Amino acid sequence: MDWKLAMEGILHSPLSSLRIAILAGGDSAERSVSLKSGTAVANALAARGHEVVTVDPSITSLDTYGWNNVDVVFLALHGPFGEDGSVQQILEAKRIVFTGSNSEASKLAFSKSAAKEQFSLSGIKTPEYALIHKDDPTEQVVQKAELIGFPLVVKPDCQGSSLGVQIVGNKPELAAAVTASFELDSLCLLEKAIFGSEWTLGVIDCDPLPLIRIGTDRQFFDFEAKYNDDNTEYNFDEPISTELRNSLTEIGIQACRTLGTKGVARVDIMVDEARQPWILEVNTIPGMTDHSLVPKAAANLGLDLGQLCEVVLERALKADRQNLRRAS
């Protein structure tokens, strides 16, 4: 897609008259990040002339809110409730237009194990894993870990922002990492660790944004590297072959199509030492903070945050119009 040409049409469209409710905050472990995303989006859209209100579901009931005064909802809720299909289901029932994926795709993508199962069925390479429950016997957990082999990654099944994620190098480190993960979710993944380069691909309705190669001095791209570390590097010009660059883009788009995502999403990919790409996960409500990856990719195309948000809004409104035509 030629994003510059696409923006010419969007910037001359009647988006300036929109009344937008931004859902941000909530009560998940990612509340602080969500509030930052919501504030950034609200400021960017208000600066472009939109009528903007921020709604925090942990404070305001979505059942009684005055939706008649809203043209479209911009979802900036991270973590459970915001990304697992719950808020999408509420808005769908009320027939309210919102950005991003529907409830079904959101639920599927937010569960790492469910998403990985779909990737495997579609022939998309994703690291080997085992799913464990907090009530599983210790010996069973250890046995599953040893079958995968150390080092491995321990991560909550349903959580974002790398919360609860740890790389475990050996058996003695396993118990503490699993315990920390179970503080965030009753299900946990033991995943084969892939070492190499870390990449991310932003997409909007499966149209790719520029690839980003992430560089960090930390063990991996964890919460601190994502949001607080100014030394994290975001490289758009990594010297790789055209074949690998195309492969990364194609596998990222395929992952989104497999899960049925819509609107803006972000795909996390590892490339091992043999130059084999591995899909880690797809995030259906990526961050919109000053450290966030999708806004950086858009900026690489010359689009500021307000323009990016208008693209996302325009796609949501267009999809709603198409759905109405099909229903009539």
Describe what you observe in this structure.
- With 328 residues, the chain is α+β, with helices and mostly antiparallel strands.
- The strands form three sheets. Strands 8, 9, 10, 11, 12 and 13 form a six-stranded antiparallel sheet that branches. A four-stranded antiparallel sheet has the order 4-7-5-6, with helices on one face.
- Helix 3 packs antiparallel against helix 4.
- 43% of the residues are buried.
- About 2% of the residues have low confidence.
Question: Quaternary status of these chains?
Answer: single chain
Portion in strands = 15-25%
Written as H for each helix and E for each strand, in order along the chain, the element string is HEHEEHHHEHEEHEEEEHEHEEHH
For the biggest sheet, the summary is: 6 strands, antiparallel
Relative helix content:
25-40%
Overall spatial form: globular
Low-confidence stretches: 7-12
Report the total helices: 11
Radius of gyration over all CA atoms, rounded: 20 Å
DSSP strand count: 13
Topology, pairings included?
Elements (H helix, E strand, L loop, with lengths): L2 H9 L7 E5 L7 H17 L3 E5 L16 E4 L10 H8 L9 H8 L1 H10 L7 E5 L4 H11 L3 E5 L9 E3 L5 H9 L4 E6 L3 E9 L2 E2 L3 E4 L7 H5 L5 E3 L6 H18 L4 E9 L4 E7 L9 H8 L4 H23 L1
Parallel strand pairs: 1-2, 1-3
Antiparallel strand pairs: 4-7, 5-6, 5-7, 8-9, 8-10, 8-12, 10-11, 12-13
Helix pairs in contact: 2-11, 3-4
